Amino acid sequence: MPERPPETALVGDFETPDEQIVEESIEGGLLGQSAEIRVGAVAAGGEGRRRGPGLGLGAWLAIGWMVFIVLIAVLAKTGILTWGDAEESFGRCARKGPLADEGSASGFLLGCDSNGRDMIPRLALGAWTSMLVATGAIVVGFVIGGFLGLLAGYFGGKETRFGAVIVGALVGAVFGLIIGGVFFAVLIGLGDNLAGVLGVLFGALAGGFAGYRRGDLDVYLTGVFNVMLSVPAIVLALSLTAFLLGSADEAASGGGLPPELVLIIAIGVVSIPLVGRISRASALSWAQRDFVLAARAQGAKNGRIMVKELLPNVLPAMFSISLLGIAIAIVAEGTLAILGVGVRPPTPSWGNIIALDRGNLFKSPHIVFEASLLIFLTVLALNFLGDVVRSRFDVREGGI
Amino acid sequence: MAGTGTAHLRDDGALLRVEDLVVEFPARDGLKVHAVSGISLDILEGETMGLVGESGCGKSTTGRAIVQLPPPVSGSVRLDGTELTALSGETLRKLRPRMQMIFQDPISSLNPRRRVRDIVSEGLDIWKIGDKASRVKKVEEVLETVGIDPANAGRRPHEFSGGQCQRISIARALATEPKLIICDEPVSALDVSVQAQIINLLQDMHHAYGLTLVFIAHDLAVVKNVSDRIVVMYLGKMCEVGDPDAIYNQPSHPYTAALLAAIPEPDPGVRPDPEKVLGGEIPSPLKPPSGCRFRTRCPKAQEQCAHAEPTVREIGANHYVACHFPLAEGEELDFAQVGVGAHIGYDDENDDLA
Amino acid sequence: MSDTDAPGITNTSTAAGGGGPATDGRLLTVTDVKTHFQTDRGLVRAVDGVSFTLDRGDTLGIVGESGCGKTVLSRSIMGLLPKRGLVREGSIVLEGTELIDLSPKEMREYWGAQMSMIFQDPMTSLNPVMKIGNQINESIRQHLDVSKDFATELATNLLGSVRIPEPEARLKEYPHQLSGGMRQRVCIAVALACGPKLLFADEPTTALDVTVQAQVLDLMATQQRERFMAMVLITHDLGVVAGRADEIAVMYAGRVVEKSPAEELFSNMKMPYTEALLSSIPKLGDATHTRLATIPGRPPDLVNPPKGCKFAPRCAYAQERCLEEEPPLVEVTPGHEYRCWFPVGTPEGVEALERNKREGTVAAASLTRGA
């Protein structure tokens, strides 16, 4: 069956001013302006919708690049193909640029870093670390932030004492862990574990209480998001990382959490309010639609409505944002590496490759340049894919 | 004018009986939107009740309040003897399959990400009515009845036209075999020729399934075509109730007369008369006028109208009106002038309509 | 000049395609205007050969459902369509000047000053973050070289003329502070600010309540009289045009299928489409539960329109011929044109209808699928 023929035409009347008049009237206005105009607008590209058959060349290039990077990363990590040893140091190669042919297994096509380590295996292994951290962080943000945002958007304006208390306690606990833990550990000097527990307890109590008082889940969650966002992201990530990594002695003795996991948690937590706001906005606008009311009229419970009605509509937007988010997270990992936290050498990540040798920018620019180029291309590809995903899903839903 | 009252309610055997329904929404500055302020109506089984009025009159809100979405602030809604407003969340939820809704915007009322067969079978799935096979069969059957080829049930809403989407909505409402269906402006967003198809379809369904309908619309001609009984609403109150022909042939409420006079007739001989055009603006539901809410635009408004709200009373066979000075037979009104009771304690021009 | 020229047309107002526009005293002469859009799916023939003329002080009503091309037509004449993928042909002559080839820059001289437009949704037609006064002034200052104070005074008078109470206060308000009817009045004021000779009203009252609709239409009629303005009233509502238009053109699938003076159209309609449209509207005078006559099927695909008459697949009168040949526009009585092989009320038409009823099918039944 062809696309929807131009049939619906008119705008009905509006009801009480309290309802979401603006959205309805805009939609109605578009319907009312009749399909002919929209045909024209689409043809003119005015609405920015691409309807070309298949994906464009750019999209295929981007996908190709991402596949390439992931492949390299997996091969390097699993040791199947490393093109040399990432950690072995060749003293003779110190400070040589690319194409230096000093006779070693890989030929040092991309040169080596200031410690004499071969760039190629380092970059390959670094790809693994960076992609793992970035993707893991975004998954955390997506799952937790997305879920919270969905709740906030759906329950916006409704009184849900019970839900608010539970969510309040949970979020408060996490928040308490971060802020409170640092507070107790640093300022009062309690042991890390005790500080952590106390932080969680205080946080949960405060959060639950706030949820109870407020009653409105949406207002509460938005407030939490706002507080989290008002702390500069770097500071938040740094303090989390520092706290979770523990003291230097612990790390040296092999204790504490693996740095990759720490980074995932840190960047993930920072991305929760960002993703949460977007999923909340999306959920909020979808929750106004008649089909949600229709589902409730059928007797569907809240959970079912959120999963079956809202989620499938919110997911596409979230997914495209996530692709962009991974790009941002890669850069974030780099920033944290430069600030001195994160994955410890000799384990390479794109971020710490740059961080280690940024002092040698003038003598051996190739080190920083190579890693930066890889980051640049990956971020570009992800941005592009995020856009493509978004416009693809927009087209399908609207239609003429 | 516009008022409240229950004189027009019939015996207790009605399928749906609504008494003194009040719905208010909180607005800014502690003010409230008085969307519905004391509506009463009853519908016998198999009847179609038409709610007609312009925007802001509260007809859609009434429809939703009847099915408790959201529940009204006060008032009684009895469906088949059960008082809906007194039910707890879970008990109310269990009754939902018996009362369904059809919405105005055919596109917005279907989930764009779900397939039509899942949308239509939603009610059956939630309540696990029948086994998988019988549900599939029911969906096919009901789609066929509304004129959608069941072979297309696997498609998504955006592949259908507006009229077809509305049919799918109707199919969804019919799937659980409800007793009552609230039709909230079901044809307002459709093209003229499609409107006729959907109106006919609703009539057919009405007969085939023995449905009881509440038909909400702003188009008096459409409402008159489908209804057995009409309630004319204005700013949350009832103006006139009764038999559609009686109301059309002999409107006794000034607002009904204005409404009828404003409807453009497809007859070039009938040139619109500026005197019959209702003047002024609808007052804000945040601060509705005292007494009769229509008095600010009514040529017959007297002092009494500002102080006392009229109640519904009988003025003919199956014909009720809420007005202190209903129109006499053949009386014509000049809306260019409002009555003395129009502006008492109420300043039209400083009214903020935000 | 294809099928709009048929033997029997006594209407001499159509200008020749080339050789300079006709200056026979008419305000607007539209000749065989086509507006196509180049899309991925193909060429969408939104408007496919429309001609009409209009004088000052007259009202032309264009009636049709969505997809018939009425909105595209009005915007095409105004020159408001986006350029990409747009193909326009034909001739649009306003007071002696050919408009179809003008650039947007040149058209800007005309917008507001010579011809104006009012749109359907007053909510989205006004800039929500701009005060009303500024929106009106913008148009005035664009075309008339006047001071700000004078423009404001003019704006105040305008608002007063569209019967908005307390105009001075309104100038300082934002659109959301007004009701729908008032907003539409402001739109009318904006459109009329520089005294255009021609006004396009594209479904101006569809989004409004019926009592407000009557007010706004009255207002437009008054303004038109006072300014001796020509108006093109575009709507789907036959009731609206019946009372307010001098001449009515019914459009279907990008073409005018019937055009006649208002009274003549209703008393002597010829197109089965017009007849079907009229009978599918519920009328107040009907008894309750009257079954409405419906038009089966759906409007045609504008990319691949059917051969022959575009309405034939849905027409109760359709015969074989209708599927093969497209009927030309013919004139029955002076001023009444239509496009049909078996028109309503004629012997051929009656016979065709009877034949279809007897056989129980419409000639194009195989092409029809219920909507």
Secondary-structure map:
The complex is a heterotrimer of chains A (400), B (354) and C (371).
Chain A: H1 21-32, H2 34-43, H3 57-77, H4 119-155, H5 161-188, H6 192-214, H7 217-230, H8 233-245, H9 248-252, H10 259-287, H11 290-297, H12 302-338, H13 350-357, H14 365-398
Chain B: E1 16-26, E2 32-43, E3 48-52, H1 59-66, E4 74-79, E5 82-83, H2 89-95, E6 99-102, H3 116-120, H4 122-126, H5 132-146, H6 162-175, E7 180-184, H7 192-209, E8 212-217, H8 220-226, E9 229-234, E10 237-242, H9 244-249, H10 254-262, H11 303-307, E11 313-316, E12 319-321
Parallel strand pairs in B: 3-8, 3-9, 6-7, 7-8
Antiparallel strand pairs in B: 1-2, 1-4, 4-5, 9-10, 10-12, 11-12
Chain C: E1 28-39, E2 42-54, E3 59-63, H1 70-78, E4 86-94, E5 97-98, H2 104-107, E6 115-118, H3 122-125, H4 132-143, H5 148-161, H6 167-171, H7 180-192, E7 198-202, H8 210-227, E8 230-235, H9 238-244, E9 247-252, E10 255-261, H10 262-267, H11 272-279, H12 320-324, E11 330-333, E12 336-338, H13 347-359
Parallel strand pairs in C: 3-8, 3-9, 6-7, 7-8
Antiparallel strand pairs in C: 1-2, 1-4, 4-5, 9-10, 10-12, 11-12
Question: Can you describe this structure?
Answer:
The complex is a heterotrimer of chains A (400), B (354) and C (371). Chain A has 400 residues and is an all-alpha fold. The longest helix of chain A is centred in the middle third of the chain and has 37 residues, at 119-155. Chain A has helices at residues 21-32, 34-43, 57-77, 119-155, 161-188, 192-214, 217-230, 233-245, 248-252, 259-287, 290-297, 302-338, 350-357, 365-398. Helix content of chain A is 70%, strand content 0%. With 354 residues, chain B is an alpha/beta fold. Chain B starts with 15 loop residues before the first strand and ends in a 33-residue tail after the last strand. The longest helix of chain C is centred in the middle third of the chain and has 18 residues, at 210-227. Chain C has helices at residues 70-78, 104-107, 122-125, 132-143, 148-161, 167-171, 180-192, 210-227, 238-244, 262-267, 272-279, 320-324, 347-359, and strands spanning 28-39, 42-54, 59-63, 86-94, 97-98, 115-118, 198-202, 230-235, 247-252, 255-261, 330-333, 336-338. In chain C, the strands form two sheets. An eight-stranded mixed sheet of chain C has the order 6-7-8-3-9-10-12-11, with helices on both faces. A four-stranded antiparallel sheet of chain C has the order 2-1-4-5. In chain C, helix 4 runs parallel beside helix 7 and helix 5 packs across helix 7 (180-192). Chains in contact: A-B, A-C, B-C.
